[in-house]
Amino acid sequence: MHDAGVSIQTIASFLGVPPTTVHDTIRRFQERGHIENLPIPGRPPKLNNCDLRELGRVLQQHCRETLVSIKNLITADVSLNTICKAIHHLGKRSCISKKKPYLSPRHIEQRLEFVHAHLHWTVNDWSQVVWMDESSFELGEPVTQKRVWRTPEQKYDLDSMAVNHQSGLRLMIIWGPSVDRFKLNLL
């Protein structure tokens, strides 16, 4: 537009930007022949794109490994701090894995049978049911937490969940019944 004789002020009002922006863009194009930013000066990153892709593949296959183990699995010779920053750049964090109850094939079959048997129940049918909610607390030494490298969206992926088995510690179990919309005393 500027080459056609249109003024900077007219171009700025047409584009909805300040006139200084239009002036700087025209000057940059006349000096360089393009309007893209120049490359950022400074030291190049330790890990190139190929190394980052390799790190992503290693994390996908070995998401439960420690940072030291991951360092040994990749080919790039960099520090743990650099690997940790690169993992964060990939959007992954070291998180405590969600617990998933162990379900045997028999349990899965029984749950599916229950769902199919009660598929057509109405709200009134469900209001006649006494619901029990259970919370269990292990007494004794704390259970070790399993960590996994994952993104926030992978919170409930099966690969990033830890199967919860009985640990052999004493359990304290509390039940809380409720009927329709009324809560009853804890048992």
From TrEMBL:
Superkingdom per UniProt: Eukaryota
Organism of provenance: Austropuccinia psidii MF-1
Pfam families in alphabetical order: HTH_23 (PF13384), HTH_Tnp_Tc3_2 (PF01498)
Domain Transposase Tc1-like: 59-120
One biological process term in Gene Ontology: DNA integration
MF GO annotations: DNA binding
Entry protein name: Transposase Tc1-like domain-containing protein
